[in-house]
Amino acid sequence: MTKFRLTNRSMQEQTKKDIYYSKVMLFGEYSIILGSMGLTIPYSHFNGELRFINSDSYTNLNFARNSNLQLKELFDYIVSLKEQKVLLADIDTERLTNDLKKGLYFESSIPEGYGLGSSGALVATLYNSYANNKIEARADISDKELFELKKAFAQIESFYHGTSSGIDPLICYLKHPIVLENAHHISSVGIPRQDILNEDAIFLLDAETTGKTAPLVKQFMDKVSDPGFKKLIDTQLIPTTNRCISTMLSGQLNDMFQSLKELSHFQLNYFKEMIPEPIQAFWEEGFNTELYTLKLCGSGGGGFFLGFTRNYSAAKAYFATKGKEIIPVYQEV
Fold it and tell me: Are 188 and 140 in contact (CB under 8 A)?
């Protein structure tokens, strides 16, 4: 697993260390809302950082100006929380408004609506640059501090999704894999290397459409109000998700892949509206060939979907015959 360095420099001292990575939630999408474990890793392939318009010759001015306008909308939301005296993070709004006037924007390669935490990376870098008395991202961070960060991040990110767990900004801020074990314990983790074969890999498959998180989460919560569906979540989805995480973290990959197949079948059966039809075909083909297994990456609906395989070369070759390129998230080479 790639090691990610923790950073805590101010906006005035900004360097490449202030780049914030995207995230990939390996397990726990949707079920984490109802109490399952969750496992998330940072993904440096896509990233973002705060810049000023015209600060370099490669800036796309239209993108930068639009980002600046969007940041101003987020700023208005933060100010409203501050005026109500409910803002959890002590954001320096005076300095932020001055920088917005100077052309502050979020330069990002993280695609929006793809399940990779574009808003989470923005919230993380905004907190890092403008929070007073901020909790530093460090190796010995306490559970209490993690949950304070999670709550503060959730409040700000809810501007984008209506509701937020705060996990996406947290992983982007810490730049290290984390596991949410229960409602009261979050910890940094490493993924064991024993028993990982050269061809074991996790990859992204592009649906070539975007998805919107807020309506999909609302749809899920509406379905959960049905006792029958809620029972399926409690008795099947949550235990299966937890097994996927615990077996991966303990290095029991054969067991993990077995639980993963159960999770994949569950999602295809009960989350079909979150999986575009072309991806459903690839999903079924994974079951038929036993070459790879697909699952949701984030809320679904579009964007990227997550694949797991024990034969990456063959999986890559298969998708190439279908005109699709897969992007490795984790590969042992």
Answer: no
